[in-house]
Amino acid sequence: MGISTDFSVAISGAGLSGLCLAQYLMRAGIDVHVYERDPGPFVRRQGYRIILDRYGLAALRESLPRPLYRLALATGDEPGGHLRFTDSRLRDAFTITFKDEPHATRQVDRLTLRSILLSGLDGRVHYGRSAVAVDDAGPAGLRLRFTDGGSVPATVVVGADGVGSALRARLMPDAEPESTPMAGVYGRSPLWRDGVSVIPDALRTSGVLALADRPGRAFFFTSMRFGENPREAFARLAPGGYAPTGDDYVMWGLLLRRDEVPAGVRGDLLALRDLAARWSTDFHPLIRRLVDTAELDSTVLNLFATGRRPRRWAVPRATMMGDAVHVMPPFGAHGGNTALRDAALLGRRLVEARAGAMSVEEAIAGYQDEMAPYAFRAVDTAAGLMRRLTGGAAAPHWVLTRLLPRLHPVTVPEA
Ligand SMILES: Cc1cc2nc3c(=O)[nH]c(=O)nc-3n(C[C@H](O)[C@H](O)[C@H](O)COP(=O)(O)OP(=O)(O)OC[C@H]3O[C@@H](n4cnc5c(N)ncnc54)[C@H](O)[C@@H]3O)c2cc1C
């Protein structure tokens, strides 16, 4: 389909939602450009995996050309699996089992997903462009301005620039996110050592949240096994596309109280890993080994925040998606899925507007009205889960770490 330039969309941020929307609009023949602050596509490791639920998978299915959607499934981990809640010695408290259906829940490597989302967008993603403001340029449209002094015109501007959004203050002036008392130090470690998996067979398909004896601290880990090797799968389904990685790994996160994070450790990889090592000494030896074998350049600090429901959208032909609107603590795996869901919904509305079914302003207002209820329900769910699992309420913590683990046999002996 040819691209018509009388209706153009400028997106700030080439993350999950920005790229997913760009894919949607490209397929519909809409003139779309994405402006990304990073100097290139893979400058940060973003080294973790992401669980896609039925909303995220449905959004990808609707937005991507069929071979790219198949690529996401082919390179993902096997469907199904479990999430186990245990005490610090990995004794089970309770387990959630995911549906064993290909389109229900799927664990994928985030960097591979980003490569898939970038496929076919050549010339439409512009790196080293840090958006700073949106100006109303009258009936003709808007201008998206950058820190380098440049600007671009567009009929519609979409802020998909993540939790630290530079556009939020202008577009959603009353909705700065709130910080929470919790933080996470995330890392990844190789899954295979001398041909042997570091994760025992009993936990092969499980994510594990191990709760420490004292409330407010926990350790999460899960292994990411690529289904098909990404290089081979890209060659088959997206020739010319780039697969940045293909080695199986364990992603882990030490959850701790924000006031336990010393000032100045952000960006200091050694200090972050030391922090994780120090606070994981009371956990099962398997957990300590994961921290000890971590790949240093994948260690990141994340201070958990919750988005605030916007009461006013200040610029009628501009809107926002994803973490920029509704950041949430990473409990329940809703953040990325909700961001992808936004992208497909907004894409649908903008395509309807371009076809003349409604005005651009109505299309965007319709997106915002439909997005806010599901997105802030997800924020509330994630924040509630975080409180229940890491909060100081004595009874639930005692049930999870003392009572329930006694009722189960030892899953992973402490060799
Ligand atoms: C450790 C961890 C584990 C997670 N696991 C899951 C999971 O299992 N399932 C799930 O659904 N979610 C998960 N999430 C959440 C998920 O990663 C985010 O919700 C998702 O990435 C949000 O997508 P986004 O498009 O809004 O923003 P992002 O993907 O963060 O992208 C924002 C982009 O904007 C760019 N940018 C920033 N500022 C500017 C600017 N001024 N101008 C231009 N570009 C800019 C950034 O460089 C970035 O590329 C997890 C998060 C973390 C931290």
Automatic annotation (TrEMBL):
Gene3D superfamilies: FAD/NAD(P)-binding domain. Residues 308-381 form the FAD-binding domain. One of its GO terms (molecular function) is FAD binding. It holds the Pfam family FAD_binding_3. Transmembrane segments: none annotated. Keywords: FAD, Flavoprotein, Monooxygenase, Oxidoreductase. The keyword Cytoplasm does not apply. This is 2-polyprenyl-6-methoxyphenol hydroxylase-like FAD-dependent oxidoreductase.
